[in-house]
Amino acid sequence: MIAVLGAARLSVDDDARSPENGPPERESDVTADVADLEDLLSRVADGDRGAFAELYDRTSARVYGMVMRVLRDRGYSEEVTQEVYLQVWREAGSFRAERGSPLSWLLTIGHRRAVDRVRAESSASDRESRYGRAAYVAETDGVEYEVLTREEARRARDCFETLTDLQVEAVSLAYYDGLTYREVADRLTVALPTVKSRIRDGLKRLRGCLGGDR
Amino acid sequence: MIDDSDLHELAAVFALDALDDVERARLLRSLREASDAERADFDAEVAAIREAMADLSATTALAPPPALRARVLDGVDALPARTETPGPPDRNRLRLFAAAAAAAVLLGAGGVVLGYTLGGDAEPVNQTTAEQVFAAPDVRTTSGEVAGGRATITYSPEAGEGILVMNQVPQPAPGTIYQMWLDGPGGPRLAGTMSDADVAPSTTATLHDMGGATAVSFTVGDAATPDEMIGEPVARLPLS
């Protein structure tokens, strides 16, 4: 399991936080292992605002970046990211370490909200027209994903690139464009079982590449 | 119903949030009826995929604007102390409304799909559905009060499609959702759910395949069990 987080480069407004509310600024690469984040989450569940700020600092680039990849709009992405962390604050007590990693929990919440938003904000036809043949994880859509050079990002990207083009297409339309698999089938003019198996097989390959235990 | 092999097969699209609300509700219902082993298999599959997607998020990592950090932390500061987190759903938030326009018997059969379009009044609904409904020779309207706001369904019995517009309906309390059911001879069928994030001052949703429904009922449900009716309907829009 990959337990290292991407860099979070944050420069914080001078008036952002009072000192007791946690580290005011993180300019260095932030890495954390699962146990660290679990500890932070359990402190957040106890109402520890400093721990919450640290959790945000360590994970927000992952959450915001994924949300931005789905919504492709800074304003919406900021709103959704804010909603995600408010939900994290409220529901940290419901996190169960045995069911998954903290980062997985955060991104599950974030992706669900991003998809809800994208389905709310645009009709299926709008979304279809937004999708270009080149939709692909390595594409930056004019956004500079600044941590692409980092080792874990490179490894994940390399693994994603082991998928076939058809698998990448199906997984990307579903995960990054927020389409239901029925919409993916419509979009690609292929049968539902075909879409399901492309997604399933693609994810299986991705998991196999990322870690043999997946 | 969803059988066992489907259950395993749907784990991937479920983990990617690639099911619509109704399919998701059906899947969750099937899961509850599945054996412990089947459920464990499904959960393990979903968890593994979510870990993989968490790893994949390294490729899209992007530092949010610094101002967002301040907004998030201020937002938390503005919340009441943790011990005052919301309790069980307040079923009295919705009030029964008086029946308004009467309508017709609906035709057709099949599943029900609800999509959402939020935002301003000018926000386009699923154009195909809206056009179809408004162009239908048998277009009808039913409306009523929901939680102090107003809900109107414009629909075509012939097409079995409708547009739900809610104005000034308050958001459900955190942890709770609004559930919309199509009432019919076979009992209520879940048409869709709305979380607090879904409900805007003006919320529009499309209703498909309304076959056989005689009314749309609203209940307040638990977000953790979105397809379970845990309280009596608190509002009902008659369709016939």
From TrEMBL, chain A:
Gene3D superfamilies: 1.10.1740.10, Winged helix-like DNA-binding domain superfamily/Winged helix DNA-binding domain (1.10.10.10). Keywords: DNA-binding, Sigma factor, Transcription, Transcription regulation. PROSITE patterns: SIGMA70_ECF. Transmembrane segments: none annotated. SUPFAM superfamilies: Sigma2 domain of RNA polymerase sigma factors, Sigma3 and sigma4 domains of RNA polymerase sigma factors. Belongs to the sigma-70 factor family. ECF subfamily. This is RNA polymerase sigma factor. It comes from Gordonia caeni.
TrEMBL record, chain B:
This is Regulator of SigK. Residues 7-54 form the Anti-sigma-K factor RskA N-terminal domain. The keyword Transmembrane helix applies. Pfam families: RskA_C (PF10099), RskA_N (PF22618). The chain crosses the membrane at residues 96-118. PANTHER family: ANTI-SIGMA-K FACTOR RSKA (PTHR37461:SF1). Coiled coil: none annotated. It is a single-pass membrane protein. The keyword Cell inner membrane does not apply. Residues 98-220 form the Anti-sigma K factor RskA C-terminal domain. It is found in: Cell membrane. Keywords: Cell membrane, Membrane, Transcription, Transcription regulation, Transmembrane, Transmembrane helix. It comes from the Bacteria. The gene is rskA_1.
